[in-house]
Design a protein that fits this description.
Helices cover 36% and strands 29% of the residues. It is α/β, with parallel strands linked by helices. Strand 9 and strand 10 (222-230) form a beta hairpin. Helix 3 runs parallel beside helix 6. The longest helix has 19 residues, at 2-20. It is an enzyme of class 2 (transferase).
């Protein structure tokens, strides 16, 4: 019965996207679920193996020089920089006298590292650590680990070995079942700098909202739950221990119709 409901829900969502959304828009969202578990019953999760396979195949081409840039498994013929993230990384490097030690939480197989390595290659003291799902870490250790880029199964394992001073959260908080609990755990390690990038926010004062994101099939077949955060609540939470250094519009398009929303990026420094 669950599989039947899942199938019917997916068909209805794709029909609504076909008739209601502009073909120029790249990501689609709908629904208003009361809990993460309710939304999860209607779709896949970010642990789906086809996502890893798509990202791996694209990033191997970037690593080998066959392709220039990858984002969300899609290859591009030129790099689209996330300027807020790059500004935050270079600001931290300058503030730390040439040291950049990043914990890229949920950083896939190194998408942000490969995106920015052209500007970071001159940094003499550079480490980039990724904490990810088990199957991503296994693939990362097998095919992508090098003298700078490394992969870890847990926050604790990473912190014990390399002690990062920068926390990068790029397009990861919206895909966690309990993002504030994870954020609390991460911030307990007292990073000096926190960069939040490519994260959707509600700007109209409405509470956090759970939707389903449908990925266009030309990228890969997937649907998964996603949070849109209340901006004021998020900034108030961060304000307990961190100062907001800068706020920016992020790289991603905004496609949630009828709402005052935007993908945002923030740079924080520890108080």
């Amino acid at each position: 019965m669950r599989d039947l409901r899942h199938f019917i829900g997916r068909v209805l969502r794709k029909l609504s996207l076909y008739f209601l959304e502009s073909p120029k828009e790249h990501l689609w969202f709908n629904g208003n679920f009361t809990s993460w578990s309710e939304a999860s019953k209607e779709c896949d999760t970010y642990a789906s193996p086809n996502i890893l396979e798509a990202v791996k195949n694209s990033l191997l081409k970037v690593k080998s020089g066959e392709a220039v840039y990858e984002r969300d498994s899609v290859l591009f013929d030129k790099i689209e920089y996330s300027l807020p993230a790059l500004i935050g990384l270079l600001y931290a490097t300058a503030s730390e006298k040439g040291r950049l030690n990043v914990l890229d939480f949920g950083g896939s197989l190194g998408s942000s590292y490969f995106q920015n390595r052209g500007f970071l290659s001159c940094i003499k003291d550079l480490k980039w650590s990724i904490v990810e799902q088990k199957h991503f870490v296994e693939e990362g250790l097998r095919n992508f680990k090098d003298g700078i880029l490394n992969f870890y199964y847990s926050i604790e394992e990473c912190m014990e070995e390399v002690r990062p001073n920068v926390l990068l959260l790029s397009s990861v908080l919206p895909y966690l079942p309990d993002p504030y609990a994870t954020l609390h755990k991460l911030l307990s390690h007292d990073f000096k700098y926190v960069i939040v990038d490519r994260t959707p926010f509600l700007l109209n004062g409405k509470p956090d909202r759970i939707l389903i994101e449908t990925v266009p099939p030309e990228i890969y077949e997937a649907e998964y739950p996603i949070w849109f955060f209340n901006r004021e609540r998020f900034l108030e939470y961060m304000n307990f221990a961190y100062e907001l250094k800068g706020e920016f519009f992020a790289l991603d398009p905004m496609t949630l119709k009828g709402e005052d929303t935007a993908y945002k990026a923030f740079i924080f420094t520890r108080k």
